[in-house]
């Protein structure tokens, strides 16, 4: 099983690295050619919109088809369209060829969404039940590494490489992930085929009938919204409010990434006994962390203490993200029937991605109008009330159902 975990994580790392670096590379090209931040920002909307529109379709595909074939098809689609793009565009990008980029990015985001959802739903076929958490944590670490390296690779490629050479590199990485996926061994599905034409509606009814799962869907929505308070607010707090250097901000960002990778590695050897309980505990800690981000500028002007305090907060934040994601995914893999897992993951993924840009927009406006400590403290308190409310409502509904 250890080889399967390593191989699956490697596939996730290579494919996600290719897609992340490609997104970053084209984003810089868009900004350079058009000079428009709005057009540049449209690239960030493609993913959430694709997730939202494809959720019903994703349910039918993932919950009825062969997972290995779907994983391969998702990657092959990216591979083929990258090759087509490389042949058609060749040497350079300009305003006239940006439409090709849009088409390419939409297709790749479709295949990426299909790949992510299917990989999560394949855990029950890849490893035994006691290894679910280990696999989830390992894949989470691989994804974190890809998210860290992607912008670095994309930025370096933009500065040093020609467009054809970079696209060739991405084609090579996607091709490698396809070859690795071909070697995966998936056990037969222990499920009834979801033949009902309204299988997505069946998934919705299932989620509504399970209060604890419904609460996780709602939490995924709000957490991605409130997480934007940190991702948007940290640079404003560090650079604008506290007048610290950009180097300090980069250091804090790197600490978050290191914490996420370290947390994933830790969870491959440490087993969470109660995933649902751990999920709620993580979320409560998350709300406290948001509140604490509002305190440095209120309690001291000693920059060393402030940097140390913020360093602790971002490390804890990174650990919380990994623990919460791993606990949620593992819980759903255990509790959700195999013929509904694709639908549940699609819903959570779509909601999560949709609220990331919405959170960025909301908090961008809030940090422009209010002091950072006001935004952090009020956001943390509101998030705390919401989490407590969901916890009490979930317990009440479970007891009532019994």
From TrEMBL:
CDD domains reported for this sequence: MFS_MefA_like
Protein's UniProt name: Permease, major facilitator superfamily
Main localization (coarse): membrane
Keyword annotations: Cell membrane, Membrane, Transmembrane, Transmembrane helix
Matches recorded under Pfam families: MFS_1
Record Gene3D superfamilies: MFS general substrate transporter like domains
Superkingdom: Bacteria
């Amino acid at each position: 099983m250890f080889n399967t975990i390593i191989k699956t994580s490697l596939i996730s790392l290579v494919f996600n690295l290719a897609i992340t670096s490609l997104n970053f590379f084209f984003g810089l090209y868009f900004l350079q050619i058009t000079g428009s931040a709005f057009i540049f920002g449209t690239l960030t909307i493609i993913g959430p919109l694709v997730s939202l529109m494809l959720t019903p379709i994703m349910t039918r595909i993932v919950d009825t088809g062969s997972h290995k074939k779907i994983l391969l098809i998702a990657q092959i689609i990216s591979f083929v369209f990258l090759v087509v793009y490389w042949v058609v565009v060749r040497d350079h990008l300009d305003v006239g060829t940006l439409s090709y980029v849009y088409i390419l990015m939409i297709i790749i985001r479709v295949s990426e969404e299909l790949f992510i959802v299917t990989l999560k739903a394949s855990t029950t076929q890849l490893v035994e039940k006691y290894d679910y958490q280990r696999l989830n944590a390992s894949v989470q670490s691989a994804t974190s590494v890809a998210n860290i390296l992607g912008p670095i690779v994309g930025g370096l490629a933009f500065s040093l490489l020609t467009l054809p050479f970079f696209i060739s590199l991405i084609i090579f990485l996607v091709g490698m992930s396809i070859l690795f996926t071909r070697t995966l061994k998936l056990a037969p599905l222990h499920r009834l085929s979801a033949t009902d034409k309204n299988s997505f509606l069946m998934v919705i009814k299932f989620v509504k009938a399970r209060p604890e799962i419904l609460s996780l869907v709602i939490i995924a929505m709000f957490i991605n919204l409130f997480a934007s308070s940190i991702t948007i607010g940290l640079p404003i707090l560090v650079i604008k409010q506290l007048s610290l250097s950009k180097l300090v901000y980069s250091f804090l960002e790197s600490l978050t990434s290191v914490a996420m990778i370290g947390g994933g590695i830790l969870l491959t050897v440490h087993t969470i006994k109660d995933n649902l309980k751990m999920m709620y505990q993580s979320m409560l800690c998350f709300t406290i962390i948001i509140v604490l981000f509002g305190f440095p500028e209120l309690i001291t002007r000693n920059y060393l203490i402030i940097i140390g305090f913020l360093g602790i907060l971002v490390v804890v934040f990174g650990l919380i993200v990994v623990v919460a994601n791993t606990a949620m995914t593992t819980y759903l893999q255990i509790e959700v029937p195999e013929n509904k897992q694709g639908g549940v993951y699609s819903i959570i993924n779509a909601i999560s991605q949709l609220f990331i840009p919405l959170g960025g927009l909301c908090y961008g406006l809030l940090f422009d109008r209010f002091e950072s400590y006001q935004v952090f403290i009020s956001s943390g308190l509101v998030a705390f009330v919401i989490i407590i409310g969901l916890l009490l409502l979930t317990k009440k509904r479970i007891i009532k159902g019994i």
